[in-house]
Structures are given as C-alpha cells and as structure tokens.
Amino acid sequence: MLIKDAAAASGLPAKTIRYYESLGLVQSRRADNGYRQYGTRDVERMQFLARSRTLGFSLEECRSLLELYDDPGRASAAVNELARQHLNELDDKIRELNAMKHTLTGLVSRCPGNQSPDCAILDSLAHG
Fold first, then answer.
1. Which residues contact 94 (CB under 8 A, 6 or more apart)?
2. Which pLDDT score is estimated for 113?
3. Cα-flanking dihedrals φ and ψ of residue 104, to 5°?
4. How far apart are CA 49 and CA 43, in angstroms?
5. CA 10 to CA 40: how far, in whole Å?
6. Beta bridge partners of 83
7. Are 66 and 25 in contact, with CB atoms under 8 Å apart?
8. Are 29 and 2 in contact (CB under 8 A)?
9. Does residue 68 contact residue 79 with C-beta atoms inside 8 Å?
10. Please, which contacts does 61-65 make with residues 24 or more away whose CB atoms are closer than 8 Å?
C-alpha cells in the first residue's frame, strides 16, 4: 500500500511515517516508480508506535520496545523494566506539574485581575 493508505490504516500522518522511516523505526520498499510501499506488518509497527507514543514513550524507548517486540526470545522482565522506568518518569512529571499548578493557582488568586497595574503574577516572574 502507498503511504497515504498506510497513514489512513495506522492513524499516523504521512509526515510522521516519513520521519519514523528516517529514524529507522519503520521501513518501506520502493516501487519502480519510486513510491514508498508498505505491507500489513509495516502498518502494525506504525500502530505499535502510535500507541507507544500515546503512552508517552520517547522515540528511543519506542525503538527499544520494537526491538523487544521483534525478539521472540525476549524476557518479559525487560519489557516490564522499561515500562516501570517510564512510569516512574511519569510520576515525577505529575509531581512537577502539580507543584507548578499549586504555584500558579496561588499567583492567580493574588492577582486582582482588574484595571490596576498591580499583578502578583508579573511580580513573581520578574523578581522570583
């Protein structure tokens, strides 16, 4: 199938498919006319990448997951460890986002939000 068909089947934009191909995450074959050709297995890999990215895995983590997926002798412990590491990173990000939200909530509550030039948000940004 052509890239537009692979894009429709995988849910990825053609531009993303070309980018993943440039990184070696997806491969295509070239038809005599130079057009990229993809098979069912290629689309499955694209879907795998799309779902992995939806869960927030980095491109390098996706590469590792694909390598594990392609290895019939893999140990599920390796997959589990990679996922646990990612989960820990997500927990760290959630804590950071909650701290940012808490700080910004406090600043918003102290800014009068009226026609006055006084603003706790700008003061905090300017002076820490």
1. none
2. 87
3. -65, -35
4. 10
5. 10
6. none
7. yes
8. no
9. yes
10. 61/86, 62/25, 63/23, 63/24, 63/25
Q: Read off the pLDDT of residues 10-62 as tens digits, 9 standing for 90 and up.
A: 999 999 999 999 999 999 999 889 899 999 999 999 999 999 999 999 999 99
How many CB atoms within 10 Å of residue 96? 10
Grouping H, G, I as helix, E, B as strand and the rest as coil, residue 30 is strand
Name the one residue in this structure whose structure tokens are 């038809």.
31
* Cα–Cα dist 103/99, whole Å: 6
Neighbouring-strand partners of residue 52: none
Q: For the chain, where are the E strands, in sequence order? A: 29-30, 36-37
**How is residue 33 written in tokens?**
């006319």
SS3 72: coil
Residues 53-112: tens digit of each pLDDT: 999 999 999 999 999 999 999 999 999 999 999 999 999 999 999 999 999 999 999 998
CA-based end-to-end distance of the chain? 56
